[in-house]
Fold:
Amino acid sequence: MSKNDKQDKANQAPPITQMKTPKVDEKRFVLTDKVSGNEYELDLLNGTVGPSALDFRNFYSQSKMFVYDPGFTSTASCSSEITFIDGDNGVLLHRGYSIEDLAMHGDYIETCYLLLYGELPSERAKQQFAYEIGHHTMLHDQLMTFFQGFLRGAHPMAIMVGVVGALSAFYHDTTDINDPQQCMAAAHRLIAKMPTIGAYAYKYSLGQQFMFPQNNLSYAENLLYMMFAIPAEDYVPSPVMAKAMDRILILHADHEQNASTSTVRLAGSSGANPFACIAAGIASLWGPAHGGANEAVLQMLEEIGDVSRIPEFIERARDKDDPFRLMGFGHRVYKNYDPRARVLRESCHEVLEELGIQDDPLLDIALELERIAMEDEYFISKKLYPNVDFYSGIILKAMGFPTNMFTVLFAIGRTVGWVAHWKEMILEPTKKIGRPRQIYVGHEPREFQLMNARDQSDQSETKKTDWKWFWS
Structure:
């Protein structure tokens, strides 16, 4: 093999390989049914770091009983090599690297490569990967006309769900999940085209002309260009804005088995094509309890309205009987400081200084809330530190993004995480179609009644009451 051949081989993306499986511990757990006296042995599975798990895969076949765990708060649905979170200690690792190091010393393209292939790229490999992504950012011409089928006032997430789902109709040469080359081509296309789709959804809502992506710009710069440039003027993305956007994308790239990632894996377990799976993930992210958190921060700031009213709302937040909640503080996973917030706090203040914003009431409220949260005993004792959604909401507001675009930007950053988990799920040796169980609490078996034997009283009022209860 020549020197050039060796260099080319070193610069190639790592081969697609099957993932590791959890190690079976020597210890075995025995569950005893105290009613019947039956005993069930369970293997203990160990990961690299983090909690171990009891292997319940054969429990139903042995016991004819299910494991009940709404929200899957104690259930590991898969094993993964991609992301590790220690919420108690505020740790987030991608492939073993801390999120702080990735965001402070790397860029989004490096993070994408790491999540997809498992290692940080060499300089040549990064250049090749950036070239590959950069030259797949254009959309098919007919796909661009697809946007015209939506109303101008449609939520950009609705447009994104529809357009991403339609990609399989335009790029059907990369939908064979049994072909590794097609899988990676689809992965690259999704990462490359998502900023274009998101930007066009925004431009369409404004009635502005679509701006073609520019191959000479970085990923974050290109996103800002397609969002804010217009044909009548030159637009050069600010380095400070581009750096902040790049960090936002890195910090949202992946977050383990959250609702949208689990949705992607569940959809993919049926053998659905990658574009359909990512569209499902976008739909899940759209929910206000998931991707809408930074949008909720801005809505909270608008509700407060003025710095002078902050003490009033903090008192309301302390009242358990008051429905008001402080959005952007604390986190379901992190019982300590959100490690992503540490990085984004720096970018937040850099952006505000760069823009020289002096008289924005919402940003004034946000900065005062941040100051109080870092000093007030109530916030400190409850560990209600500002999280990544708090700072990303402030940054995106300062940059000029409307709140309905916040979740779109979240989806753009998270695409690589979804794709990496989809790829990992496809290669999992123990892959099975997702089929959660349930505890049935409905009617017992009963006989069908013909119409003349049924209760003929008016049931419309009951139905109205049921739906009112359902939506409350």
The first strand starts at residue 23 and ends at 32. The two ends are 70 Å apart (CA to CA).
